[in-house]
Amino acid sequence: MEIEERLKELGITLPDAPGALGSYIPLVKTGELLFLSGILPFKNGILLASGLVGSD
Q1: Which residues does residue 8 pair with via DSSP β-bridges, in sequence order?
Q2: Which residues make Cβ contacts (< 8 Å) with residue 29, sequence separation at least 6?
Q3: Is residue 46 part of a domain?
Q4: Distance from C-alpha of 46 to C-alpha of 41, rounded to nearest angstrom
Q5: Pairing relationship of beta strands 33-36 and 46-47 according to DSSP bridges
Q6: Is 51 a domain residue?
Q7: Quick one: which of 12, 13, 30, 48 could link to 41 by a disulfide (CB 3.0–4.6 Å)?
Q8: What is the pLDDT of residue 56?
Q9: Residue 22 to residue 5: CA distance in whole angstroms
Q10: Domain limits for position 56
Q11: Beta bridge partners of 30
């Protein structure tokens, strides 16, 4: 079963991914790997987490 089929079966719809906030490519897919850059945890336009790695 594909993940899209399972999500549909469960009645789950995913929001569209937000566009890049800068002049960079936000993701690159190579085979089964997805490399992400500059992706932040937004939900409904609100930043869910902030801080500095190692400090918070």
Answers
A1: none
A2: 35
A3: yes
A4: 8
A5: unpaired
A6: yes
A7: 48
A8: 61
A9: 33
A10: 18-56
A11: 33
